[in-house]
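COURSE: Structural Biology Practicum
ASSIGNMENT: Worksheet 4, Part C
STUDENT ID: 0417
INSTRUCTIONS: Below are two proteins. For each, the amino acid sequence is given first, followed by its structure token string. Answer the questions at the end about the second protein only.

PROTEIN I
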Amino acid sequence: MRLVLLTLAAIISVGIGVSTAYQFYVLLWQPAQWVEVRAEAGFAKMLRYASIVAAMIGVGYMIYKGVEAMLWWIPRSWVNFDEDGEPQWIGHSIAGLVAFAGAILVMTKLEERAIELVNSRRKQS
């Protein structure tokens, strides 16, 4: 059973990584595809949105690990207590907050840039 769970976790991790890379590729090099997602219908649209959510999770995880590494200087004795009374290092809470906000900010700003790029290309044509 443990092997099955580890395999499933590995597959999900690879899927999130591939989704993140694909969404960055689409946003930066093929922005017209990103803008056209609103015109899609049915199963294709659902898959596209699942890919976008996976990319947001990937971006959030990258930001989380980066912020967590930057907070090395906070003493491990600085803790919050969760609802079970278990201590949790304050750096994890800060990194989680920054990662959540950062993932949303990064993806929305990239989407705005993609829309601007598509609109400027349409004006040139």
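PROTEIN II
(use this one for the questions)
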Amino acid sequence: MIKELREEQVPRKELDRVFSSYDEQRGYPRKLDEVKQAQGNVYGARDFLSDLRERDRPQGTPAAVLNALSD
């Protein structure tokens, strides 16, 4: 019985490697939230709306005309 248990036992280094992988995966959402928050502080709602306007603007339309129309 003891022999069977020792044969089925996983080495400690292997367990450490697997568990460290789990710990890293658990940290990803937190890191992602930090990046999103930092980006939100730099890239605000005004910039987002400006980018949407630029993307939706037809090619060849002068920016001054569109800005006059939006005001």
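ANSWER KEY EXCERPT:
Q1: The chain has four helices and no strands.
Q2: Residues 12-42 form the longest helix (31 residues).
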